[in-house]
Structures are given as C-alpha cells and as structure tokens.
Design goal:
This protein has 530 residues and is an alpha+beta fold. The protein is 34% helix and 18% strand. It folds into 2 domains: 259 residues, no CATH class; 205 residues, Serum Albumin, Chain A, Domain 1 (Orthogonal Bundle), CATH 1.10.246. The two termini are 24 Å apart.
Length: 530
C-alpha cells in the first residue's frame, strides 16, 4: 500500500506532549506539565498563549470546545464552551438594518456577536479535571502580552492581510490589536506587546470567570456592542454557562472516532467516515484517484446532512443517533458512484428506513485534552472592546433566517459551530487526540487524517503532511487540492466530473493546520505531529 513520506519527523515523548500551531504556545504548555500540571492545565495555558501570539485566530472573545480522555472512567467527555446568542436577538432587527443575513464583519457585524464562551470553558475544564488554577495557567500568556514576543513569518502574513487591517481600522479601538511600529500590523521579526489584552487577562487571572461575565469586562463589552446597535447585554453575559455533553462516535474499521455533539459540525466527519467504511479505501493507495473520489463524495453527503440538521440540541431536536447509524450510511452510500455527483447533493432522511487554533496535550498518566478555540473569521467581527484589547467573534453570522430551519436565529440559542476537536480510541484505550483547523475544512481534515492513520498506518506527522483535498461548501462547490497531489490523480478526478483547483503557496492555509498526538498504550510513548 502506498503512503506519504513526510519530510519532517514526528516527535516522540514519554512524559508529556503538546502540539499546536505556535512554538511559544507549545513551550508554555510543556512547562506547565513540567511544573506539575496535567494535560488539561497544559491545554488551557497553551490556548491562552495562542490568544496573544496568534490573536487573529483565537481569543477570549470567542468560543471553545474540548474532548477530554478521563483515564479513571475510561471514557471521552465533551465540553461545550460555546456561547449563546443574546436574548433579544431576532431576524426583524437585522432586516430593518438592511441585511438579508447577519454580516460577519464591518457594518452589521454587531448582530454576529454571541456571548464569548472561552473563559468559562477554560475554567470549567480546569475545575473538573485540572490540577492548577486559572491564575497559574494564564501567567505565560500575560507575560507575552505585557513583555512582548517576536512575530513569526506566517503570523505576520495573516495579521497584515488587507482584509484584516481594514476590519480592525473600521473602529478606533481596533488599533489596540494593530501594534506594529507604524501603527498597523506588525512585520515579520518585529517585537510587539498587547498591553490592553494583558491587563484583561490579568483581571481574569485574579477574578476568574466572574471577572469576565459579571464585572468590568462584561460591562464594557455590553456597552460597546449596544453602542454599535447590537443586542448583547450584561445579563446575557452573566447568564452564560458551559455544558458537559456525551461525546458522539462511530466505529471506523475497529477504531472509535469521537467528536463533540451538535451544535458543532463534527457529526459531518462521522457521517463521512461511516460512508467511507463501505469502500475498500486501503486497497486504493493513499494518493489514488479512487481514494480521493470516494472520500470527496462521502464528505459531500456528510455536509449535506450537517447543514440540514445541525443546530442547538437544547433548543431543537437533532437526530444524532439516526444520522450515525450504519443502516443510514448503507442507504446513503448507494447514492455514491464512480463519477462525481451533482455538487449540490441533497441531504438524506435519517428517520426514514475559517481562522481557528487547535491544540492537544497528553500527559504521562494518559490524560488527554483535544481543544479548539476560535473567533471564527480573522479577528472575528473586528469589533475590539475599547481598553480591553479583545476582539469579539462573529459566530452569529452562521444562523439561518429560514424559520423552518433548525438553526434559525433565536435568542438564547447557540449557532451552528465549525470548530471541532477529535479523539480516537482503540480497545477502550486513548489512541489519538487530534484536530484540523480552518472553518469548513475541519471535518474534511478529520476524515482524511483518520483514514491516513487507520487505512495506511501513517504516523502523526505523515498523516498531517499528506496532500489534502477540500470540498468547497460555500459558493463554487469546487474541489481544492494541495499542489503535492500527483498530476495524474488531479486529471483523473477531473475526468470523473470534479471541478478541481490546485492550490499552492500561502493559499494552502485554506486546508488548515493540524495536530495529532498518538499514544501507545503498552509503552506510554507519545508520537506528536504538527
């Protein structure tokens, strides 16, 4: 069986591993483990540092989700740290302002601001499974915000994009996140500080989540959004809480793949895996046109169902078990042939017959945390709360205006979420803690990474470096592929009816970064890739 030979080696460890997109954040998480913390402490510390060193992608103004392997109970636990839309939210206000949907930035984006769930999610994870306090794990992030760090090449590129700078310059307070010497985005190698964000993190460190949801931070946030014409109030913030959920899973060739339940899109990956299991993927070769074709078609169906059914299950019924049944997968698989289907594939009836950071940490005792944190688009709405250095997310832009759709805009309701962490267990042992970033790329990345490791026995680094596809689910419906994919495979996919675009350079960011930590249950050896 062919496989992908990565140009980078996986990292091996025994006493703990942290994998994420920024070295400074990974080092902070590892130091927490060295100082006596566990994987959950390390994960929160890493996420907080990412807020400072990769602020366009994540932050306390956004949401988080986590999967935790409870080594004592021997089960995967899901944490929903996403916020709800303001109680006063309604479609009429948006339409009266001249919009047919909620804008995700610039004018009208005040309606896209839902309650940021990150801080409460961090604290909830620490209180239930950590060893350290929020004050202890926030210390590295505060240090970088106050004392500074050098901006890396990739971060400088993202920070300096025209869209990002325009978004932040739209309001005076956006300057708090434009710390470059010339008053704009910082350049590669430039030392920057984020003093306003540092002070905000210090308030949270001293006062816990109450300082965020009930104190000065809440007051300033609500007043700012209301001054912009939005809905968010102090009461909305004060009433926020995270939720522990039962993780959902499917078995793919003897491996249980775990995701958080809706309102996240992780179910799309599980639906696709159920479909792909019916094809002999391993016999096709890792870069064969057959393999890419059947995974693409499986992913299209997974997304068709996710877009139809995923919503806040505490407000509207989501048919999770029927969607994940093998019988349903068998019926849906019959719609897949050797040629491309209509890109606008329809959803099934189970009741009948991008900018994000991901991180994972595993400690020497086998506790694992798969955590994802995001503002949705770069710097979210671009609305920065004055004096707080905090950009607010634009998750509310994913609500539907169709009153018959389960994701219809309503007050106190969580929107459809793109951010999804993942895990895999084998023989009731934690095997993989993994994730892929990038909006609607995320379930597609989970599908491909899981297939790489299960069907082709790739290691953590190979599984991430192997060339990926991305089905465009908004607009064109084209299939994007990385330039490393062979020309023969690209041409054959085109012959089968796929509209394929080959992507290179910085544009490959649309395929998302990713991280994987695998654990050998016999030796405890961790194999990490990023």
């Amino acid at each position: 069986v062919s496989y992908f030979q990565s140009r980078r080696s996986a990292i091996l460890a025994r006493k703990g591993a942290v994998a994420t997109s920024q070295p400074l954040a990974a080092v902070a998480g590892l130091q927490i483990i060295k100082d006596g913390g566990n994987a959950i402490d390390a994960a929160v510390a890493t996420a907080a540092v990412l807020n400072v060193v990769e602020p366009m992608s994540t932050g306390i103004g956004g949401d988080m989700f986590a999967l935790i392997w409870d080594k004592n109970e021997r089960k995967v636990i899901a944490l929903n740290g996403s916020g709800r839309q303001a109680a006063a939210a309604n479609v009429d206000d948006v339409r009266k302002s001249g919009f047919d949907s909620i804008p995700n930035n610039l004018e009208g984006s005040q309606f896209a601001v839902s309650v940021p769930g990150t801080v409460h999610g961090w604290e909830t994870a620490l209180n239930s499974y950590g060893r350290m306090t929020l004050k202890e794990v926030l210390k590295p992030a505060i240090d970088y915000a106050v004392n500074g760090y050098a901006v890396s090449e990739v971060i400088a590129h993202s920070w300096g994009s025209i869209e990002t700078v325009t978004k932040l310059n739209h309001r005076p307070s956006g300057k708090e996140l434009l710390p470059g010497k010339l008053g704009g985005a910082p350049k590669y190698g430039e030392m920057v500080t984020l003093p306003e964000l540092g002070r905000t993190l210090q308030m949270i460190a001293e006062g816990g989540s109450d300082a965020f949801y009930k104190g000065e931070i809440a007051k300033k946030t609500a007043e700012f959004i209301q001054s912009e014409g939005g809905w968010l109030t102090e009461s909305d913030l004060a009433n926020h809480h995270s939720d522990w959920d039962e993780a959902i899973s499917v078995n793919y060739r003897g491996v249980d793949i775990w995701e958080c339940p809706p309102n996240g899109q992780g179910i799309a990956a599980l639906i696709a895996l159920n479909l792909a299991e019916g094809f002999d993927i391993a016999s096709m070769g890792a870069q064969s046109p057959d393999r890419y074709h059947y995974l693409i078609e499986s992913m299209r169906q997974g997304y068709a169902d996710a877009f139809q059914y995923v919503a806040d299950p505490r407000v509207t019924e989501v048919p999770i078990s029927p969607l994940l049944s093998k019988d349903y997968a068998n019926r849906r698989r019959s719609e897949i042939s050797g040629v491309a289907t209509n890109p606008n594939v329809s959803y099934g009836d189970p009741m009948g017959g991008a900018d994000t950071v991901y991180l994972t940490a595993v400690d020497d005792e086998g506790t694992a945390c798969s955590l994802i944190n995001s503002l949705f688009n770069g710097f979210g709405t671009g609305l920065v709360v004055p004096t707080l250095g905090m950009a607010l997310q634009n998750r509310g832009s994913l609500f539907s205006f169709d009153p018959e759709h389960p994701n219809y805009l309503e007050g106190n309701k969580r929107p459809f979420q793109t951010i999804i962490p993942a895990m895999a267990t084998r023989d009731n042992e934690m095997w993989l803690s993994f994730g892929v970033m990038g909006g609607f790329m995320q379930p597609q990345g989970h599908l491909q990474v899981a297939s790489n490791m299960i069907d082709y026995s790739m290691d953590s680094q190979q599984a991430l470096d192997a060339p990926r596809f991305k089905v465009e689910v908004e607009g064109s419906q084209d299939v994007l592929v990385e330039e490393d994919l062979s020309a023969d495979t690209v041409n054959e996919l085109k012959k089968r009816g796929h509209t394929v675009q080959v992507v290179s350079g910085y544009d490959r960011g649309s395929f998302g970064g990713g991280q994987v930590i695998s654990r050998n249950p016999e030796t405890g050896v961790l194999t990490a890739g990023s």
